[in-house]
Amino acid sequence: MLSTEQACDRVHDIVARARAAGADASDAIFATDQSLSVSVRMGALEDVERSESAELGLRVFVGKRSASVATSDLSDAALDTLVERAIAMAREAPEDRWAGLAPEERLMHGSPPLLDLDDGGDADPQALKARALAAEDAARAVPGVTNSEGGSAGASRSVTAIATSHGFTGAYAQTSHGLSASVLAGSGGGMERDHAHHSARHASALEAPEVIGRRAGERAVARLNPVRVASGAMPVVFDRRVATSLLGHFLGAIAGAAITRKTSFLLDALGTQVFAKSVTLCDDPHRPRGLRSRPFDGEGLPVLPVTLVEGGMLETWLLDSASARQLGLSPTGHASRGIGGAPGVAPSNLFMAAGHIPPETLIGEIDHGILVTELIGQGVNGVTGDYSRGAAGFLIEKGEIMRPVSEITIASNLKDMFLALTPANDLEFRYGINAPTLRIDGMTIAGD
């Protein structure tokens, strides 16, 4: 795998070639990755996968016309052909007055922040196998577990580099380690499955395989013999496992493209209250070892921690340069770049700040409601905010978590849900997007 310095050389070279061939401006991204994963099932090795990839994406501008191309052939001849093709495509593309590179005066300069994203270790197949086996063994040892879908462990390392023709070149490396187990409990038509997993930038930060396996087994057993629930309006508590999905819907609604296209249910909400006053949402790209930490965005702009929602008030959109120009605003450092195509937007380590109420209290105050631990389907309308998804979880009766429930649908509108939301105090940083346990009163439950 190339070093970060060599990756910088790659993108700097292709941008220079594009300018020399007649492009008015250009930017490029180079990404290389190597990964290893090991899967086991029923105590035996099932699969070992190793992959390596290296891809380069180039975007060129001819006036206000642009085109993007990508390749995995990094030979000199192929790169020359790539540049020629990109410029020819750009000359035939329609004009876009909002397109262009990020503002030159906003580009990041100097050394990037040290985020400790690369543990420098090499993946060891035997160590991965041992982790996967230990996780599955712990899951299968839980009383009531009757079968296994397996355990898996993986490790990867990647290098990403970005360059622009007006003065930015930067790169960073990151590692990723993961471990999971999935098992079944019960028998016949009454079988239930569940899983557990954990990911970390450093292998040393992974949870113990025995902890992950035991959690998977206990979750599967807890779902046995679900009951039906009568339809009606009632409080719904979102377990941390699924609470983050609500933040995903919020992000889609404040993305610059959704605002410029007028396809967001929060279209006119900037500067207004969109969540309950107890809610604060922050985005922190500088979190050490964060799963979505990054030293700069997809256009070469510096990234900084930002508060998206404070006291329930929406403070900003997520903007790349193109959407910022169209809205007459400044880019927010949230541009996200894939190998092909123009930048979009994406958060870094987004989280909802913890509330002040323990989850036991949020649940203890409910006379009749649902604790949701799994969401099914994608029944969310990003234009209207209408929300309807299949769900499974547990019945709450008189403040106690009781029998499991399944085959229900929970429904409301995201605007109403956000305003009625109460966060618990159990925030934990396990994912790229994190939220504490959340309670929303008055949702519609469709059951029997």
Automatic annotation (TrEMBL):
GO cellular component, one term: cytosol
Highest taxon, organism lineage: Bacteria
InterPro entries xref list: Metalloprtase-TldD/E_C, Metalloprtase-TldD/E_cen_dom, Metalloprtase-TldD/E_N, PmbA, TldD/PmbA_N, TldD/PmbA_sf
Pfam families, alphabetized: PmbA_TldD_1st (PF01523), PmbA_TldD_2nd (PF19290), PmbA_TldD_3rd (PF19289)
Annotated Metalloprotease TldD/E central domain residues: 121-224
Domain Metalloprotease TldD/E N-terminal, first and last residues per copy: 29-90
Region named Disordered: 184-207
Name of protein: Modulator protein
Limits of the Metalloprotease TldD/E C-terminal domain: 231-447
A single MF term (Gene Ontology): metallopeptidase activity
SUPFAM superfamilies: Putative modulator of DNA gyrase, PmbA/TldD
Gene3D superfamilies reported in the protein's UniProt record: PmbA/TldD superfamily
Family listed: Belongs to the peptidase U62 family.
One record GO biological process: proteolysis
